[in-house]
Specification:
With about 300 residues, the chain is α/β, with parallel strands linked by helices. Helices cover about 45% and strands about 20% of the residues. The longest helix has 20 residues. The relative contact order is 0.17. The model has no long low-confidence stretch (mean pLDDT about 95). Bound molecules: S-adenosylmethionine.
Length: about 300
């Protein structure tokens, strides 16, 4: 695998990254990113319209890895006798659809700021809402048995507020399940910082927060029942992305043609695709599952 330094040099050969470094992430950038990448995700990630990492247990990527988070959530929904579940940041609606189809006696609400669910995912027991999960006043307090969020809280610039909102909406004993990426190293070198910035810009994330800081916010309200490092398990998914980006950057001349043809919000995905393996392998970033209980 190439080093961070080698990869950044290759990226700089085809893209002027300076304009990006100071770009401020906001809701408009986020929405634009997800709207423009709808087709790209289907083409380059998976046909099931999941927007998350696969969790592999044998070191290679298989389609079934995309269902691991859902199967774990399903177990918890079953164990705590859920009647009402909420998904934050539903993407294209594939997660809520998967669970709602199998559990017709449970009401599934879901909220996303930038995307609408695919029509086929709308069921009698689903309620997909367009909105911001920092503001959940329209939902009933103490009413959800389980709230889950897969790879969406990384976008939040006010995670404390999200944990507060979720705490209010969960019933006593309710569970908040999160799968997400965090910064895992302090005192980064300039090059490590730049690679993080490029990965963030590539994914419309304002800035990855350090795991310890986010766990600090979690503890303000919740009991952390589980905190599981799944970084190694997402590597096979990351290698797939890295391979695609490697083709892209290997022939700068062709890459420049693509840059002229495709929307910039699609091109910037290549930064994350190319650099994320290094960040995870070098333990600069990490992917975690958390189970939080409202006691
Ligand atoms: C990486 S995608 C994950 C989608 C889905 N959880 C999945 O596993 O396929 C992140 C999603 O979070 C949504 N999102 C980001 N910030 C949000 C916010 N403040 N409120 C609601 N949704 C948000 C984005 O619009 C996007 O659809």
């Amino acid at each position: 695998m190439k080093t961070i330094s080698e990869k950044i040099k290759e990226i700089k050969k085809v893209i002027d990254i300076n304009y990006l470094i100071n770009e401020h992430q906001n809701i408009k950038v986020l929405k634009d990113y997800y709207v423009r990448n709808k087709i790209a995700y289907l083409l380059f990630h998976n046909r099931q319209s999941f927007l998350h990492m696969g969790i592999s247990h044998d070191g290679r990527y298989l389609n079934r890895d995309l269902y691991v988070q859902l199967k774990e959530i399903e177990k918890i929904i079953h164990l705590n006798g859920s009647k009402k579940v909420l998904e934050l940041g539903f993407g294209h609606g594939a997660n809520t659809n998967y669970l709602a189809k199998k559990h017709t006696d449970i009401q599934f609400d879901a909220i996303d700021i930038s995307t609408r669910p695919f029509e086929k995912y709308i069921r009698s027991n689903t309620n997909f809402m367009l909105g911001d999960y920092h503001y959940l006043d329209h939902l009933t307090d103490d009413s959800y048995d389980v709230i889950f969020a897969i790879e969406t809280i990384c976008h939040s610039t006010n995670k404390e507020r999200v944990f507060d909102q979720v705490y209010k909406k969960l019933r006593q004993g309710g569970i908040f399940i999160l799968y997400d990426g965090y910064l895992n190293k302090k005192d980064l070198s300039d090059e490590e910082k730049l690679s993080c910035t490029l990965v963030e810009k590539g994914m419309a994330v304002d800035s990855f927060e350090h795991l310890n800081d986010v766990e600090g916010y979690m503890k303000e309200n919740f009991h952390i029942q589980e905190s599981v490092d799944l970084s190694v398990n997402i590597l096979p998914t990351l290698y797939r992305f890295e391979r695609l980006a490697k083709y892209f950057y290997s022939i700068p001349f062709i890459a420049k043609i693509f840059i002229k043809l495709l929307p910039e919000k699609i091109i910037r995905n290549t930064f994350s695709a190319y650099l994320m393996t290094n960040l995870v392998k070098e333990k600069i970033a990490a992917y975690y599952k958390h189970l939080l209980v409202k006691e």
